[in-house]
# Entry
Amino acid sequence: MTTTVFSVPGMTCGHCKQAVTTEVGKIAGVSSIDVDLDTKKVTVTSSELLAWSDLVSAIDEAGFEAVAN
# Structure
């Protein structure tokens, strides 16, 4: 298992959290997603290392911008 942590500064509410969770959950291999609205951090656990471009695309699809930590 691999864990990837990154920031999504624009998230402010439960709808934001749901949108990010839904889009990241579509990436193959993702097993869990934790979105912390207080810290604006997203922690993704996956079966293998995820491509940063896939994460950026998913966050973009949710209407936000991903920032590497």
